[in-house]
Amino acid sequence: MSPIRTVVALLACCTTVAFAQNSTDTQSPVQPTRPQMVRVSGGVMLGLVEHKAMPEYPEEAMRTGIQGDVIFKIAVDETGKIVLSVPVEGDPLLVAASVDALRDFRFRPYLLNGSPVGVVESQLGFHFSLEGKGGETNGRVDCMLSIPDRPEFRTGVVNDKGVLVLAPRKVSSVEPQLPPELAGKSGSVYLTITIGADGRVQDVKVVGGDEPFISPVVAAVEQYVYEPQLVDGKPSVATTQASYHFGPRR
Description:
CATH superfamily of the largest domain: TonB
CATH topology of the largest domain: TolA/TonB C-terminal domain
Mean pLDDT: 81
Largest sheet: 10 strands, mixed
CATH class of the largest domain: Alpha Beta
Number of helices: 4
Strand content: 35-45%
Low-confidence stretches: 1-32
Number of strands: 19
Order of helices and strands: EEHEHEEHEEEEEEEEEEHEEEE
């Protein structure tokens, strides 16, 4: 029988996510009510991992050549424990191996306005792959750093009234066309972008930045197209912030 070895690769990813929010109502309380649930990307969730145990590649799967992705919808409570895991896709044998590993995952609290959120909903995935030819087969398991977008996992917040607010998501963009004299030079531009209910950019305000870079960046951003913010399933106007940096790090 050919020898079979299992190689487990441990990967981690730290990512940040910016939430698009409407302008604050001047009559809102100083201390906002903590939302019931926040939905974040799989990359953000991996960045919160404190402890994990990777799945073991099932020997039967290696013998029969089974490989591919396993993706779960997960819910993490305030203590950092996975309280719900639902397989979204994957071979049943690989899913079963992954469920065991999920029991040992622990996460740092997700903070919003400085306070931990009660429930964080996200995706978590593992990529199973086989390597080697001839008399030796190696099974490798990696955390998926990028999971395909699905509408049901769009970043959002469930507020204290139970209304799901989904942040805008960029679907089309163009690169700023810098003049030749700026080639290789360093510069930054900081913007506040208002996105209409139709997903088009309604307004671009310059918060700060280096003057030569501002006009090309604003001209490009004005052409962006988004999936609009959804409040309880209805498109609405949203405001978000963005920054653009060019050239070598300062």
